[in-house]
Amino acid sequence: MSDFKKEIVDSVNYYFDNVSNEQKEKFASLLIEHRYTNIFFLGIGKSYNQAVAFSDLLRSISFPSGVLDSSKLLHGDIGCVRGGDLVVVVSNSGNTQELQLQIESLKKKKVDIALLSSKNGKLKDLCDYHFIFPVEKELSAAFNKMPTLSSLNFNIFCNDILSVVIDKFGITDQTYLKNHINGDIGLPYKKVQDFLIKESECYFVLQTASLKDVILGMNSKHIGCCCVFDEDHNMVGFVTDRDIRVFFENNNELAEIFSCSVSEVMNKDFFRINDKNTIVKDVNKDYNYAPVFDRGKFIGIFDREFYNKS
Fold first, then answer.
1. 95: burial class by Cβ within 10 Å (0-12, 13-18, 19+)?
2. Residue 285 sits in which domain range?
3. Which of 135, 150, 180 is the last residue in one of the domains?
4. How many domains does the chain fold into?
5. Which of 89, 241, 245, 307 has an alpha carbon within 20 to 30 A of 167's alpha carbon?
6. Which of 173, 168, 170 lies closest to 60, judged by CA?
């Protein structure tokens, strides 16, 4: 094992060997207690970046979390902090001198103040709570000074706390998904109705139509499928360009192919979606197109290609 890899592994092991489960429970409970007020993070330098990451995670599960800019806090931004809020101060050393005046000013607002640090620094005496994320040392290659392994262990601590919060508060994946609408995470949880070929853009024929008419009509509509209805306006079949290709492969007489009825080609037992609110990930992936109905009425065609391009 390389020295670098060993130091990483040793740092992670040190965290789990020394982290206090009691402190984790207490910090998680503190966050939950402020679920309906505000939770602010405050840090300077690289601790600010770590504070942003932790705050973002909490916000994604609907906690009212934000980050205070230390350069602006005492120039007006402190006005957004109200009594009863929670301010989480992030300082690796626990001794960041620039934070002292800011903490003292925040205390006058009658907020709860918690310090997150890797050591027992001087700032803990100014705060209501102190939570430690265990760190043994920094990377040797970084002169044992740059916040390398401490950053790693802080991130582990954040994920550790997040897991406890989710478990204690009974948060489900639906809470997260409602807040993560876009991207690879949110996309599969969008609804079928978001990816419809609208009814006005679909191509319809009666079951007496010829296959030639269907091919020409699909081409004119620039669509790869066709809905087949009977004279009572009931959808009785569905044809895709794949169905037509398969039909061509199995029949050699072109004249007969083009003159045959679409009813000979259409899929009578076609896959259909009966609820426009169906989640995309629950739709059978074998189908690129699927007719969609709302309370029994045809409203459009789900287009997987439209979804895949999103």
1. middle
2. 189-308
3. 180
4. 2
5. 89
6. 173
Q: What is the pLDDT of residues 264-309, one digit of tens each?
A: 999 999 999 999 999 998 898 788 999 999 999 999 999 998 887 7
Residue with tokens 């800011």, as numbered in its chain: 102
Phi, psi for 12 (deg, rounded to 5): -65, -45
Is the full-model pTM beyond 0.85?
no
Nearest CA among 167, 169, 186 for reference residue 178 = 186
Inter-residue contact 63 to 31 (CB < 8 Å): yes
Give burial (CB, 10 Å; 0-12/13-18/19+) of 61.
buried
182 phi and psi, to 5 degrees?
-105, 180
Kindly report the backbone phi and psi dihedral angles of residue 77, in degrees, each rounded to the nearest multiple of 5, phi listed first.
-65, -20
CA distances 115 to 27, 60, 66, 168, 239, Å, are: 10, 22, 16, 22, 64
Quick one: the chain helix, strand, coil %, rounded to 5?
Answer: 50, 20, 35
- The one-letter amino acid code at 238 reads F
